[in-house]
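Check out one such.
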Amino acid sequence: MARGPLASLRILDLTQGIAGPYCTKLFSDYGADVVKIERPGGGDVARRLGPFPGDEPHHDRGGMFLELNTSKQSVTLNLTTITGRLILRRLAADVDLVIESFRPGALARLGLDAAALAEVNSRVTLVSLSNFGQSGPYRDLEADDLLAYAMGGVLAVTGGEDREPLKIGVYAPLFLAGATAAAMTFGALLGARRTGQGERVDISIMDVLAASMDRGGPNLMAWSYSGELMARRTRVRRTSALPGGVYPCADGYVQVITQANWWERFCRTIDRPELIDDPRLRQNLLNPEFTDEMDALFYPWLMAHTKQEVMEKAQSHGLPVSALNTMEDVFRDPHLRARGFFTTLDHPATGPLEYPGLPFRMLGTPGELRRAPLLGEHTVDVLTGRLGYTREELVILRERNIV
């Protein structure tokens, strides 16, 4: 039995890839009953995205799928068949939300667009998540995460000044879009419950990125007012002698922030308290031409300490410094471990693995991570339990390649 604040919510998940499944994962991990529809034989495209345990590819072992589809049920359904589409309509008749990421227009061809949904379930909310939305001249263009980031305007303000833009980490725009879609979907659901009529939501990944606080919205607004960006690309040159930015240390890098009024904290951090009242240093703290001398004090201390030691020592003196963690560091991080962030799930295709935990916690209704489904694992249970099919009928449907 699922636990969590959304335990009474039923969702029909017609998404695949990254953005849509991340959106529905944020519902399923907090108790929502999410039935994921997948293509027989292949399933979600994310099932083919690694890493794979032991480097052995298999549709039930793809790392991306396992992470993005925790706590869901998998039902295989061939939507190219009339019977498959009829089964889909029947499933939609008893849910609160339908969330889909097909190409614009595909849902109508499947006979489950907004008008068709209203016929079978007037209170259901339909959320359509696509690259560029359901309308507009870009509607049918192809896109991946980098293209969406570029067209949303955010890529233009990443990277070093006077250099080409730099791509940010893997799939980051799609995860941002998925999280935004989940928040907006919940708002639409509340609105539908107030009116008694299902809402229709058109979410464009390009729109999300153009409006996002990740440099999109603020810079777009600044340009509309002044023709200038609020924040240009990250500048590498220093504007004072004080350290600031990414610095090397004994085993990696740290992110450092300093200010003139934190000079005493800085000196105590690097074990040089005698420099606190040095008049020559104090009067040159904001002088960029004094950078080399300041770095000569800082670098030897950095290179004698690990990034964890640098962070802990600086933070103990009130200096905001953080370790620049690799994924291995995050996995072993003592703070996350102490909070019980990671969850071990035993999956029949992979054995027990540790998964990133819930992004937020509620004490009364905490939510619960459950393993991702095998392809089609819940087809029999869902179709017999919800729609009244017999097992004999399901055998026939499987023989006809419908489920």
